[in-house]
Amino acid sequence: MIRKNSINCKLTREKKPEILIFKDCMARLKPEDETCPCCGCRGMMRVHAYYGRSLIDISGSRPVKEDICVCRLICRQCGRPSTHAVLPDPVIPYRRHSLFFILRVLAEHAIRLRPVERICEVYGISVRTFYRWQSLFHDHRAEWQGLLAAAETDLKPSLLALVRKSPFSSFSASFFQLTGFSLLQSHKNPARSRRRVRDPADSFP
């Protein structure tokens, strides 16, 4: 997997729909400039294939499903058969729902805008999925804010700190390098490294 930094400002300042962020990032992609995640060789990546998947974003306070085409690259140097999906910041590996979508859902609950049941009704998710996202954010918060944050049950300060980080891509890249997985990704890479119960809200990487 190759994560592309595509939100070079605070999340609160990013006004583009995530589908446009994805398309802009893909339009600028130059496979020959990428570094292989396996061997570290630069300049030997090429397009291997494309595959389709969906991305659920928020538009006008409602969920909107968009179809996207994900590029997979392969390295000509290391000879490994594995390919690497290119995913910009808004796309969370193995999840259909976008970064902005999940953070919006968590924020509405954190500021007590709506009760959980109403949030789930408005955004078309199950209560079980909401609490899984909340628990995952709580766990990932400890990765960048430490054990003291992990003991705090109120997520509002952490959500505010996250959306105010600038540029967000710097935080995203640092988090990925530190942990080996993306923020709000439910398991580490590669997928076969750990068995898990599949979340009904999950999709392909």
Structural commentary:
The protein has one domain (2-179). Helix content is 37%, strand content 18%. The chain has helices at residues 18-28, 99-110, 116-123, 127-145, 147-150, 156-164, 168-179; strands at 2-4, 45-59, 62-75, 84-88. The longest helix has 19 residues, at 127-145. The relative contact order is 0.18. Mean pLDDT is 87; it is low at 191-200.
Side by side, the strands of the main sheet go: 1-4-3-2
C-alpha end-to-end distance: 9 Å
Unreliable stretches (pLDDT < 50, length at least 5) are 191-200
The count of β-strands is 4
Structural domains: how many: 1
Radius of gyration: 17 Å
Q: Summary?
A:
With 205 residues, the protein is of the alpha+beta class. It has helices spanning 18-28, 99-110, 116-123, 127-145, 147-150, 156-164, 168-179; strands at 2-4, 45-59, 62-75, 84-88. The chain has 7 helices and 4 strands.
Describe the protein's topology:
Elements: E1 2-4, H1 18-28, E2 45-59, E3 62-75, E4 84-88, H2 99-110, H3 116-123, H4 127-145, H5 147-150, H6 156-164, H7 168-179
Parallel strand pairs: 1-4
Antiparallel strand pairs: 2-3, 3-4
